[in-house]
Design brief:
CATH topology of the largest domain: Butyryl-CoA Dehydrogenase, subunit A, domain 3
Shape: globular
Oligomer: single chain
Largest sheet: 5 strands, mixed, barrel
CATH class of the largest domain: Mainly Alpha
Low-confidence stretches: none
CATH architecture of the largest domain: Up-down Bundle
Length: 486
């Protein structure tokens, strides 16, 4: 354990997860250690980028002004192939290995890559319009200048209940071109070349099934100027390396992905890609927090003994490390299932529904495990850990944000329970993972709870799904069985 904590993300991936790595992965980690991390720390300390809304001539330009080294930092990941591995080779594992290394040092920076390949997927699968090859080429570039994507769903009403909160309207202009008007409230990677936007086509039904997904370019094809406006940038507590803002759509050009009836499926597929990436990323950064705690304890002497030598510290370090290992196994299990099912279209197979359940479990549980590790790291450092000049403070801030990215805990608990019950997935789960081997009564307890109403078992849902997530992660880690599909 100590050797892996000292070796960085590649040591964990190779030694604990058992993944074969290439020279590219080791070189990428070395770049982060020598160049990337100092730049990332400087960007985090500098805070939110600036927004220049007008040119000297008074033209609305909404330009995002970054620190001069931000582009260099961002392009390193694109050059390494985080997006290209998906768009050209359909190699999700290679992409996520690079993403794990990125998020170990800076989970906020992993966001632009994640929303870019998450935007590429539905365009590749569902969009058949005349601009298909153009859009795919923008997001899948192997060489600079790299095109960036974004996924903008949330409006002022919130992100959990999109069926009620999405008020952006879409009107058909001609062919596959639509006009979108509305306001998006949390727009990560604002300034992107192409954004996927949730909107409600004219005449669509109320609720979630009335929402469609559109590609909105940064620049207008018909007419001049910006196709969307940036009202302001958010001053966030964490993930400062990705700009988040409020976007105004004012008769913005949009291109419908698939049919209006496929909007719900496209939207959920985008979220599933991002949720798997979030799971991988939070485990990586939680591991970094644990490494910080260990290295600080090696030089911190209390009561005549180094903290790293004291029994309670070693016991708790092992506990957090074990939980992170199980969480990592669950995250990588989701990655392999994503690789197996991502090309499926509705009606989905049973294995796609299992993937959806695994994604809900992984998203909420990995975030909880990683945040606990970061909070423990701060406790190990004591009072100085709360100071912005030392590492623990940033890790807690970063993981507080990623804990609610792509759906809060309660949303995943309720949605996970709903899919488990609706599609009768428990028999398949018990067949694939013998959870009784690590939690003898779990299967029977879930089976009994599934016969009750939500009101009757609401107090049990978090406990049951947490135990299920941990059991699958533990079994997967023990067997290094990251894919039961191969």
């Amino acid at each position: 354990m100590e050797e892996i904590l000292s070796g960085g993300p590649t040591a964990f991936l190779a030694g604990e997860m058992g993944f074969p790595l290439s020279d590219r992965h080791y070189a990428y980690q070395a770049w982060w250690q020598t160049e990337g991390l100092p730049l990332s720390l400087a960007i985090d300390r500098a805070g939110t980028p600036h927004l220049r809304q007008f040119s000297p001539e008074g033209e609305r330009i909404d330009e995002i002004l970054y620190p001069p080294f931000y582009t260099y930092l961002l392009e390193a990941g694109y050059s390494a192939g985080i997006v290209y591995e998906v768009s050209e080779r359909h190699d999700w594992r290679s992409s996520f290995l690079l993403g794990f290394i990125t998020a170990y040092y800076d989970p906020g920076l992993y966001c632009p890559y994640t929303v870019t390949f998450s935007s590429w997927v539905p365009i590749y699968k569902y969009y058949e319009g005349e601009r298909r090859e153009e859009f795919l080429a923008v997001l899948g570039r192997h060489d600079p200048p790299f095109g960036q994507g974004a996924t903008w769903m949330t409006e002022i009403g919130g992100g959990s209940d999109l069926g009620a909160s999405v008020q952006t309207q879409a009107y058909l202009v001609g062919g596959n071109r639509w006009s979108l008007t509305g306001d998006k409230y949390f727009c990560s990677n604002v300034g992107a070349d192409l954004a996927l936007v949730a909107a409600r086509p004219q005449g669509a039904p109320e609720g979630i099934r009335g929402i469609a997904l559109f590609v909105v370019p940064r620049e207008r094809l018909y007419g001049n100027g910006r196709n969307y406006l940036v009202r302001r940038l958010k001053d966030k507590i964490g993930t400062r390396s990705v700009p988040t803002g409020e976007v105004e759509l004012r008769e913005s050009e949009g291109y419908l992905i698939g049919s209006p009836q496929q909007g719900l499926y496209c939207l959920l597929e985008v979220l599933n890609c991002s949720r798997v990436a979030n799971s991988v990323g939070v485990v990586a950064h939680g591991l970094h927090a644990l490494a910080q705690a260990y290295h600080f304890a090696l030089r911190r002497r209390v009561f005549g003994q180094f903290l790293a030598e004291q029994p309670l510290f070693r016991h708790e370090l092992k506990q957090h490390y074990t939980q992170l290992t199980w969480a990592a196994a669950l995250a990588w299990l989701c990655e392999q299932w994503l690789e197996a099912v991502w090309l499926e279209k509705p009606p989905y197979s049973n294995r796609y529904l299992l993937f959806r359940l695994l994604t809900h479990l992984a998203k909420f549980w990995t975030a909880k495990v990683a945040l606990k590790a970061a909070q423990w790291n701060l406790e190990v450092w004591g009072g100085i850990g709360t100071l912005a000049e030392f590492p623990p403070e940033r890790s807690v801030r970063e993981l507080l944000v990623t804990d609610i990215w792509e759906g809060t805990r309660h949303r995943h608990l309720l949605d996970g329970w709903e899919v488990l019950k609706r599609y009768n997935l428990l028999p398949s789960i018990l067949e694939l993972w013998d959870v009784s081997a690590v939690d003898s009564s779990l299967g029977s307890e879930i089976e009994q709870a599934l016969d009750k109403t939500e009101d009757e078992i609401v107090a049990q849902i978090e406990s049951l799904l947490t135990r299920l997530a941990q059991a699958i992660g533990q079994i997967t880690a023990t067997r290094r069985l990251y894919s039961i599909l191969s």
